[in-house]
Amino acid sequence: MKNRLYIITCLLLCSVLLVQCGRKNNSNNKQQKIAVVISTLNNPWFVFLGEQASAKAQSLGYETRLFDSQNNTALESDHFDNIIVEGFDAILFNSTDADGSVANVQKAKTAGIPVFCMDREINSLNAATSQILSDSYSGAVSIGKCFVQQLNKKGNYVELLGLVGDNNTWARSKGFHSVVDNYPGLKLVAQQSADFDRNKAMEVMESTLQAHPDIDGIFCGNDAMAMGAYQALLSAGKADKVKVFGFDGAADVINAIKENKVCATGMQFPLIMAQTAATFADEYIKGKRDFPRKVPVAVELVTKKNVDDYIAYGKK
Protein backbone atom coordinates (compact mmCIF):
# COMPACT_ATOMS: atom_id res chain seq x y z
CA MET A 1 0.00 0.00 0.00
CA LYS A 2 2.81 2.37 0.94
CA ASN A 3 4.64 1.52 -2.27
CA ARG A 4 1.53 2.22 -4.30
CA LEU A 5 1.04 5.65 -2.66
CA TYR A 6 4.71 6.41 -3.24
CA ILE A 7 4.42 5.55 -6.93
CA ILE A 8 1.25 7.66 -7.32
CA THR A 9 2.91 10.62 -5.58
CA CYS A 10 5.95 10.35 -7.87
CA LEU A 11 3.74 10.23 -10.94
CA LEU A 12 1.86 13.33 -9.83
CA LEU A 13 5.09 15.21 -9.21
CA CYS A 14 6.38 14.21 -12.64
CA SER A 15 3.15 15.42 -14.24
CA VAL A 16 3.45 18.81 -12.54
CA LEU A 17 7.08 19.14 -13.67
CA LEU A 18 6.18 18.24 -17.23
CA VAL A 19 3.40 20.86 -17.32
CA GLN A 20 5.73 23.51 -15.94
CA CYS A 21 8.43 22.61 -18.46
CA GLY A 22 5.88 22.75 -21.25
CA ARG A 23 4.75 26.20 -20.18
CA LYS A 24 8.35 27.39 -20.02
CA ASN A 25 9.08 26.04 -23.48
CA ASN A 26 5.95 27.67 -24.92
CA SER A 27 7.03 30.99 -23.40
CA ASN A 28 10.54 30.65 -24.81
CA ASN A 29 9.18 29.66 -28.22
CA LYS A 30 6.81 32.61 -28.43
CA GLN A 31 7.56 34.53 -31.62
CA GLN A 32 9.06 37.95 -30.94
CA LYS A 33 7.68 41.05 -32.62
CA ILE A 34 9.18 44.01 -34.45
CA ALA A 35 7.09 47.09 -35.27
CA VAL A 36 7.73 49.10 -38.45
CA VAL A 37 6.48 52.68 -38.12
CA ILE A 38 6.50 54.72 -41.35
CA SER A 39 5.84 58.46 -41.70
CA THR A 40 3.39 57.99 -44.59
CA LEU A 41 2.31 55.21 -46.92
CA ASN A 42 0.99 57.79 -49.38
CA ASN A 43 4.38 57.84 -51.09
CA PRO A 44 5.80 54.82 -53.00
CA TRP A 45 9.30 55.46 -51.62
CA PHE A 46 8.13 55.04 -48.02
CA VAL A 47 5.96 52.07 -48.96
CA PHE A 48 9.10 50.40 -50.32
CA LEU A 49 11.09 51.31 -47.18
CA GLY A 50 8.41 49.87 -44.89
CA GLU A 51 7.89 46.71 -46.90
CA GLN A 52 11.61 45.98 -47.10
CA ALA A 53 12.10 46.55 -43.37
CA SER A 54 9.20 44.19 -42.63
CA ALA A 55 10.47 41.58 -45.08
CA LYS A 56 13.96 41.58 -43.59
CA ALA A 57 12.62 41.30 -40.03
CA GLN A 58 10.35 38.42 -41.07
CA SER A 59 13.27 36.65 -42.74
CA LEU A 60 15.09 36.87 -39.39
CA GLY A 61 12.19 35.10 -37.71
CA TYR A 62 10.11 37.96 -36.29
CA GLU A 63 6.44 38.73 -36.44
CA THR A 64 6.04 42.24 -37.87
CA ARG A 65 3.36 44.89 -38.12
CA LEU A 66 3.47 47.99 -40.32
CA PHE A 67 2.11 51.27 -38.91
CA ASP A 68 1.25 54.31 -41.07
CA SER A 69 1.63 57.66 -39.24
CA GLN A 70 0.14 59.66 -42.15
CA ASN A 71 2.69 62.45 -41.50
CA ASN A 72 0.90 63.11 -38.20
CA THR A 73 3.00 63.17 -35.02
CA ALA A 74 -0.08 62.65 -32.82
CA LEU A 75 -1.04 59.50 -34.73
CA GLU A 76 2.58 58.40 -34.51
CA SER A 77 2.38 58.85 -30.74
CA ASP A 78 -0.72 56.60 -30.63
CA HIS A 79 1.20 53.96 -32.57
CA PHE A 80 4.04 54.05 -30.05
CA ASP A 81 1.58 53.74 -27.15
CA ASN A 82 0.02 50.64 -28.74
CA ILE A 83 3.42 49.16 -29.54
CA ILE A 84 4.53 49.56 -25.92
CA VAL A 85 1.30 48.09 -24.51
CA GLU A 86 1.46 45.12 -26.89
CA GLY A 87 5.05 44.36 -25.91
CA PHE A 88 6.93 44.63 -29.18
CA ASP A 89 10.63 43.85 -28.95
CA ALA A 90 11.99 46.57 -31.26
CA ILE A 91 10.84 49.42 -33.53
CA LEU A 92 12.10 50.23 -37.03
CA PHE A 93 11.18 53.87 -37.33
CA ASN A 94 10.73 56.49 -40.05
CA SER A 95 9.78 59.66 -38.20
CA THR A 96 7.22 62.34 -39.01
CA ASP A 97 9.17 65.23 -37.43
CA ALA A 98 12.79 65.64 -36.35
CA ASP A 99 11.81 67.40 -33.12
CA GLY A 100 8.25 66.21 -32.56
CA SER A 101 9.14 62.51 -32.79
CA VAL A 102 11.81 62.61 -30.09
CA ALA A 103 9.28 62.19 -27.27
CA ASN A 104 7.83 59.08 -28.91
CA VAL A 105 11.25 57.46 -29.27
CA GLN A 106 12.13 58.39 -25.69
CA LYS A 107 9.03 56.74 -24.24
CA ALA A 108 9.84 53.56 -26.16
CA LYS A 109 13.36 53.66 -24.76
CA THR A 110 11.98 54.13 -21.24
CA ALA A 111 9.79 51.06 -21.80
CA GLY A 112 12.91 49.09 -22.78
CA ILE A 113 12.13 48.94 -26.51
CA PRO A 114 15.02 49.88 -28.83
CA VAL A 115 14.30 52.19 -31.77
CA PHE A 116 16.25 52.16 -35.03
CA CYS A 117 15.59 55.18 -37.25
CA MET A 118 15.50 54.76 -41.02
CA ASP A 119 16.10 57.63 -43.48
CA ARG A 120 14.56 60.38 -41.34
CA GLU A 121 16.61 61.74 -38.46
CA ILE A 122 15.38 62.76 -35.04
CA ASN A 123 17.08 65.59 -33.15
CA SER A 124 18.43 63.52 -30.29
CA LEU A 125 21.71 61.65 -29.97
CA ASN A 126 20.53 59.42 -27.14
CA ALA A 127 16.88 58.49 -27.69
CA ALA A 128 17.28 56.11 -30.64
CA THR A 129 19.62 53.13 -30.44
CA SER A 130 20.89 53.92 -33.93
CA GLN A 131 19.93 56.10 -36.93
CA ILE A 132 20.55 54.83 -40.46
CA LEU A 133 20.32 57.86 -42.73
CA SER A 134 20.91 58.87 -46.33
CA ASP A 135 23.74 61.37 -46.76
CA SER A 136 21.30 63.94 -48.11
CA TYR A 137 23.70 66.88 -47.90
CA SER A 138 26.41 65.27 -50.05
CA GLY A 139 23.81 63.94 -52.48
CA ALA A 140 22.40 67.44 -52.94
CA VAL A 141 25.92 68.83 -53.49
CA SER A 142 26.22 66.50 -56.48
CA ILE A 143 22.84 67.63 -57.79
CA GLY A 144 23.88 71.27 -57.32
CA LYS A 145 26.97 70.72 -59.48
CA CYS A 146 24.87 69.08 -62.17
CA PHE A 147 22.30 71.89 -61.93
CA VAL A 148 25.00 74.53 -62.51
CA GLN A 149 26.31 72.70 -65.56
CA GLN A 150 22.89 72.07 -67.08
CA LEU A 151 21.85 75.72 -66.72
CA ASN A 152 25.22 77.00 -67.95
CA LYS A 153 25.71 78.97 -64.71
CA LYS A 154 22.82 81.39 -65.35
CA GLY A 155 19.05 81.64 -65.22
CA ASN A 156 16.07 81.90 -62.89
CA TYR A 157 15.10 78.90 -60.82
CA VAL A 158 12.57 77.65 -58.27
CA GLU A 159 13.15 75.40 -55.26
CA LEU A 160 10.44 73.12 -53.88
CA LEU A 161 11.13 72.16 -50.27
CA GLY A 162 9.84 69.07 -48.48
CA LEU A 163 8.32 68.94 -45.01
CA VAL A 164 9.73 71.80 -42.94
CA GLY A 165 10.00 69.55 -39.86
CA ASP A 166 12.18 66.97 -41.63
CA ASN A 167 15.95 67.39 -41.40
CA ASN A 168 16.30 65.87 -44.89
CA THR A 169 14.50 68.90 -46.30
CA TRP A 170 17.13 71.28 -44.98
CA ALA A 171 20.12 68.99 -45.56
CA ARG A 172 19.20 68.78 -49.24
CA SER A 173 18.51 72.48 -49.53
CA LYS A 174 21.78 73.42 -47.81
CA GLY A 175 23.81 70.97 -49.87
CA PHE A 176 22.30 72.31 -53.08
CA HIS A 177 22.85 75.95 -52.13
CA SER A 178 26.42 75.30 -50.99
CA VAL A 179 27.16 74.94 -54.71
CA VAL A 180 24.58 77.02 -56.56
CA ASP A 181 24.92 80.16 -54.43
CA ASN A 182 28.49 80.56 -55.70
CA TYR A 183 27.13 81.50 -59.14
CA PRO A 184 25.61 85.00 -59.22
CA GLY A 185 24.08 84.33 -62.63
CA LEU A 186 21.69 81.83 -61.03
CA LYS A 187 18.76 83.60 -59.36
CA LEU A 188 16.32 81.96 -56.94
CA VAL A 189 12.92 83.53 -57.73
CA ALA A 190 10.74 81.32 -55.50
CA GLN A 191 11.25 78.84 -52.67
CA GLN A 192 8.22 77.07 -51.19
CA SER A 193 7.35 73.88 -49.36
CA ALA A 194 5.26 71.25 -51.11
CA ASP A 195 5.53 68.71 -48.28
CA PHE A 196 7.19 66.02 -50.43
CA ASP A 197 3.78 65.58 -52.09
CA ARG A 198 3.23 65.23 -55.83
CA ASN A 199 -0.20 66.88 -56.02
CA LYS A 200 0.82 69.77 -53.79
CA ALA A 201 3.96 70.31 -55.86
CA MET A 202 1.86 70.56 -59.00
CA GLU A 203 -0.41 73.14 -57.35
CA VAL A 204 2.54 75.15 -56.01
CA MET A 205 4.23 75.19 -59.40
CA GLU A 206 1.04 76.22 -61.19
CA SER A 207 0.83 79.28 -58.93
CA THR A 208 4.57 79.94 -59.15
CA LEU A 209 4.53 79.87 -62.96
CA GLN A 210 1.86 82.56 -62.97
CA ALA A 211 4.09 84.83 -60.87
CA HIS A 212 7.35 83.79 -62.54
CA PRO A 213 6.66 82.54 -66.07
CA ASP A 214 10.29 82.78 -67.18
CA ILE A 215 12.22 80.15 -65.24
CA ASP A 216 14.98 77.84 -66.39
CA GLY A 217 15.19 75.22 -63.67
CA ILE A 218 13.46 73.62 -60.67
CA PHE A 219 15.19 71.81 -57.82
CA CYS A 220 12.82 69.54 -55.90
CA GLY A 221 13.57 67.97 -52.52
CA ASN A 222 12.17 64.62 -53.65
CA ASP A 223 11.03 62.82 -56.79
CA ALA A 224 7.32 63.01 -56.01
CA MET A 225 7.56 66.80 -56.11
CA ALA A 226 9.70 66.61 -59.25
CA MET A 227 6.95 64.72 -61.06
CA GLY A 228 4.32 67.15 -59.79
CA ALA A 229 6.42 70.07 -60.99
CA TYR A 230 6.89 68.44 -64.37
CA GLN A 231 3.11 67.97 -64.70
CA ALA A 232 2.59 71.68 -64.02
CA LEU A 233 5.21 72.56 -66.65
CA LEU A 234 3.53 70.21 -69.13
CA SER A 235 0.15 71.86 -68.56
CA ALA A 236 1.73 75.29 -69.05
CA GLY A 237 3.48 74.26 -72.26
CA LYS A 238 6.93 74.72 -70.70
CA ALA A 239 8.05 71.13 -70.16
CA ASP A 240 10.69 71.34 -72.89
CA LYS A 241 12.09 74.67 -71.65
CA VAL A 242 12.59 74.11 -67.89
CA LYS A 243 15.05 71.62 -66.41
CA VAL A 244 13.74 69.59 -63.45
CA PHE A 245 15.88 67.95 -60.76
CA GLY A 246 14.64 65.54 -58.09
CA PHE A 247 15.89 63.42 -55.19
CA ASP A 248 15.05 59.80 -54.25
CA GLY A 249 15.46 57.44 -57.19
CA ALA A 250 11.77 56.62 -57.67
CA ALA A 251 10.66 54.50 -60.64
CA ASP A 252 8.76 57.25 -62.43
CA VAL A 253 11.72 59.65 -62.27
CA ILE A 254 14.17 56.99 -63.49
CA ASN A 255 11.88 56.56 -66.49
CA ALA A 256 11.47 60.34 -66.84
CA ILE A 257 15.27 60.77 -67.01
CA LYS A 258 15.40 58.18 -69.80
CA GLU A 259 12.68 60.14 -71.64
CA ASN A 260 14.44 63.52 -71.13
CA LYS A 261 11.63 64.83 -68.94
CA VAL A 262 13.76 65.13 -65.79
CA CYS A 263 17.48 66.00 -65.78
CA ALA A 264 18.73 64.21 -62.69
CA THR A 265 17.94 62.75 -59.29
CA GLY A 266 19.81 61.65 -56.20
CA MET A 267 19.54 57.88 -55.82
CA GLN A 268 18.88 56.84 -52.24
CA PHE A 269 19.12 53.23 -51.13
CA PRO A 270 16.11 52.45 -48.90
CA LEU A 271 16.80 48.71 -49.15
CA ILE A 272 20.16 49.19 -47.43
CA MET A 273 18.63 51.38 -44.72
CA ALA A 274 15.72 49.00 -44.11
CA GLN A 275 17.86 45.86 -43.97
CA THR A 276 20.49 47.49 -41.77
CA ALA A 277 17.84 48.65 -39.29
CA ALA A 278 16.24 45.19 -39.14
CA THR A 279 19.62 43.50 -38.71
CA PHE A 280 20.54 45.89 -35.89
CA ALA A 281 17.21 45.16 -34.17
CA ASP A 282 17.85 41.42 -34.40
CA GLU A 283 21.33 41.85 -32.93
CA TYR A 284 19.95 43.98 -30.09
CA ILE A 285 17.28 41.43 -29.22
CA LYS A 286 19.97 38.74 -29.13
CA GLY A 287 22.08 40.77 -26.68
CA LYS A 288 24.28 43.23 -28.55
CA ARG A 289 24.33 46.78 -27.14
CA ASP A 290 27.12 48.60 -28.96
CA PHE A 291 25.70 50.34 -32.06
CA PRO A 292 26.85 53.42 -34.00
CA ARG A 293 24.66 56.43 -33.25
CA LYS A 294 24.48 57.33 -36.94
CA VAL A 295 25.13 55.27 -40.06
CA PRO A 296 25.40 57.39 -43.26
CA VAL A 297 24.29 55.81 -46.54
CA ALA A 298 25.73 57.38 -49.69
CA VAL A 299 23.48 59.02 -52.32
CA GLU A 300 24.45 58.69 -55.99
CA LEU A 301 23.77 61.13 -58.83
CA VAL A 302 21.65 59.68 -61.65
CA THR A 303 21.62 61.45 -65.02
CA LYS A 304 20.94 60.56 -68.64
CA LYS A 305 24.53 59.32 -68.91
CA ASN A 306 24.29 56.60 -66.25
CA VAL A 307 20.55 56.02 -65.80
CA ASP A 308 20.74 52.57 -67.41
CA ASP A 309 22.80 51.43 -64.41
CA TYR A 310 19.87 52.02 -62.05
CA ILE A 311 16.41 50.75 -61.26
CA ALA A 312 13.88 52.16 -58.81
CA TYR A 313 15.50 52.69 -55.40
CA GLY A 314 18.83 51.15 -56.30
CA LYS A 315 21.33 49.81 -58.83
CA LYS A 316 20.69 47.00 -61.26
TrEMBL record:
Q: Which terms are listed as keywords in the entry?
A: Signal
Look up the domain of life of the source.
Answer: Bacteria
Q: Name one GO cellular component term.
A: cell envelope
Molecular function, one GO term: carbohydrate binding
What subcellular locations does the record give?
Answer: Cell envelope
The residues covered by the Periplasmic binding protein domain are: 34-288
> How far does the signal peptide extend, from start to end residue?
1-21
Family of the protein in this entry: Belongs to the bacterial solute-binding protein 2 family.
Q: What is this protein called?
A: D-ribose ABC transporter substrate-binding protein
Protein source organism = Ilyomonas limi
